[in-house]
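[step 3/7] fold_predict: job queued, chain A
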Amino acid sequence: MKRVDDTVETVQELGRDIGSYIRDQRNHAQISLRQLAKLAGVSNPYLSQVERGLRKPSAGILQQIAKGLRISAEALYVQAGMLDERAGGPIVDAVVADTSLSERQKQVLLDVYVSFRRENLTRKARDIAAESSAVAGSSTMERSSVDGPDVTIETATAKE
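[step 4/7] structure written:
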């Protein structure tokens, strides 16, 4: 059985830089840089620069890379900082600190909480991808961000 501390660590885990994450996922999938570039519809040099941290890909490019890697775009958005999966803050702290709950009860509550957060992040990731697709090709962009109690989302919208 998982320990409560392990779940708290999972919720609080910070994203690494996006390039390293993409490289790790590509290596895990046993796909060459050239193959992933072709699958994602980007050039080899561009993908290489992303993996080395020299370029920051847009949400649309991340979505294409996610498809090529066959992973969720949400995972890449979180790693890139476009979706900020915050630590859970006071909710996790309250569950962990509650002495009237058994370890099993704490674990069940935290598992449910993490499950709902994941579901909500997936929905928000889809919204970001849709917005990114809608503004693709626009040369003038304006950044906006939406803050929620547990999630921060940055999107780019076209200026008309």
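[step 5/7] annotate
The radius of gyration is 18 Å.
Residues 4-158 form a domain with the 434 Repressor (Amino-terminal Domain) fold (CATH 1.10.260.40).
exit 0
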